[in-house]
Amino acid sequence: MSFQCEHLSKSFALRGGFVQALEDITFRVGEREFVSIVGPSGCGKSTLLKLIAGLLRPSAGSVVLTAASDDERPASALVFQEHGLFPWMTVLENVAFGLEARGVGRAERHERAMAFIASVGLAPFAHAFPHQLSVGMRQRVGIGRAFVTDPRLLLLDEPLGSLDAQTRFLLQEELLKLWTRSRSAVVYVTHDIEEAVLLGDRVLVLTGRPGRIQGEITVPLGRPRKLEYAVDERVSAIKWQIWGMLEEEARRSLALASREPLPAEEGAVP
Amino acid sequence: MSAPPDRRRLGAGVWPAVFVVAVLLALWELWARAAASASILFPAPSVVGAVILRQGRNGELFRTTGATLLRLASGFVLGGVPALLLGLAMGFSPRVRAAVDPLVAAAHAIPKIAVLPILMILLGLGEAPKIAVVAAAAFFPLLISTMAGVRQISPLHFEVAHAYGASAPRVFWRVLVPGSLPQILSGVRLAFNAALLITVALEIVAARNGLGATIWLAWQTMRVEELYASLAVTSLLGVGFNGVLALVGRRLVPWHATPEI
Question: How many angstroms separate the Cα of B68 from the Cα of each of A173, B63, B78, B226?
Fold first, then answer.
C-alpha cells in the first residue's frame, strides 16, 4: 500500500469571497507508517483529513491511494474529534458501525467489535450507551469504530484533544499498541507538539491561512515507543525545532486575534 | 445498568401524584356532602363514581368510550402516518421544508372544527368528515415535532455515517429515525392530546354517540352527574395513554438519560 497527496489545495466560498484553507500539500505515507501532522488551530488540519477521507473534494491536486487489487480492506477510516459517537447505539453497536456500513453480517461484526472492546478493557460496558461512559472511554469507542474496519489508512483528528493529561498519556500508549497489532498506516493530526513527536515516525509541520507544509522531521526514536521518551533529550530538541517553525505564526495570530475575529475557525468550515 | 434508578424514579413520580388526587377528591366529597346547593353543579365524586359503575354494568360505558376511541384511533393513524413521513422529509431536506412550511403554518392556524361543515358537505354526514377533522388535529403537532427532531440531529452524525460509507437506507434507519425518535414521541403525545380534545368537541357538535355526545345530552337533560362521569372517563383516557407512552418511551429511547416525554 502507498498513499500520496499531490499538490493538494482547498478553498471555501465564504461571505462572497474565498478562503484558501490548504495550499500545495504534498506528502506520502508508506506501508504501516505513523505520520503526525502538527499545526496551530485553524491551519486546515481537519480539512486535510476530510479531503483524504473523501468527505470533501480538493480544489486542486489529488489524493492517491494504491493497493493490491485483491485488497478488500477499506481505503481509510476517520476517527472524529469528540461527540462522534451515536448516542442511540450501545458501545458494541457503535464499534461495529463501520463494519455494519460495509455490509458485514451481524454475527461477524459483533464478534470483531467484541474482540476490540475486550482488548481495551471495555467489555463490562459493551451494552452501555455513550452517555454512561467517561470521556476517555468514549474516545476509545470512537477509535475502535475505525480500527475494527481494518483500514489501509487510519485518519485521526485530534482524538485525544479533550482529555486530561493523565488519561491522554495512557491512551497514547494504548493507541500505539493497537496500531502495532494492526496493519494500518496512520495519519495523526494534533496541535500538541510533544504528542506529534512521541507518536509519529515522521512529523509534518503545518502552518495556517492557507495551510502549507512548513517542514518535515523524521523522529529518531525506536519502536516500541515508551512513556519515558517524553523526557528524552532528542524529543526536547525536536520539540524546540518544531516550535521554531510555528512560533512566528503563533505570535502573529495571537496579535491578530486580539484585534479582530478570524474569518473561519477550522470547525466552522463546511 | 440504568434500569433500577429509572424504576425508582417512576415509583417516586407516581405516588405523590396519587396522593394529591386522593386528597382533592376527598375534600370535594366532604364539601359536596356538606353543602347541598353545591352538589347540584358539583356532585360528589362517590356519586359520579356510582354512575360510571352503573354505566359499566349495563355496557353503556364501553359503547360510548368505544365510539370515541374508534374515531380517535382512525383519525390518529390517518393523520399521524403522513405527518411522520412528511416531517422526516421536511426535516431532512431544506428544499421540501421551504416549499411546504408556509402552507403548514397557514393550515395549522385554522381551527380544525371550523372546517367540519365543509367536510360534511364533501364527505357526507357519516363518520368520514369527523375522522378527517381528528386526523387534521393529530397531523400538525406530530409533523412539527418530527421535523424539529430531524433538524436537531448533529450534522456530525450524518458525516460519520457518510465517512464509513453507509447507504441511504442505513442512514435513514440508523441515524435519521433513532436520532429524531425522542422528539417524535413527544409529538405523538401532543398529537394524541389534540386528537382527543377535537374528538370530544366534535362529538358535542355533531355526533349521536361517544363521550362528547353523552356530555351534551347529560347537560341538556340536567343529569349533571352523568356529565361528570363522561368527563372523568375522558380524563382517564388521557392519563392512561400518556402513561403507556411514557413506558414505551423508556423502551424505545433507552439512551436518553432523562426522557423528554
Answer: 65, 9, 15, 16
How far is the C-alpha of B130 from the C-alpha of A143, rounded, in Å?
55
For residues B125 and B178, state if they share a domain. yes
Quick check: A169 pLDDT over 50?
yes
Percent of chain B whose pLDDT exceeds 90: 77
> Which residue(s) pair with A213 in the sheet?
A206
Residue B145 lies in domain? 61-252
Nearest to B254 among A102, A129, A149 (CB): A129
Residue B159 lies in a domain: yes
- B90 and B193 housed in the same domain: yes
Q: Which pLDDT tens digit goes with each residue over A30-62?
A: 989 999 999 887 788 889 999 998 889 999 998
Rounded to two decimals, the ipTM of the complex is: 0.85
pLDDT tens digit string along B200-225? Answer: 999 999 889 999 999 999 999 999 99
From chain B residues 171-210, the ones with a CB under 8 A of any chain A CB are 174-175, 178-179, 181
Q: In chain B, how many domains are there?
A: 2
Cα separation, A47 vs B51, in Å, equals 71
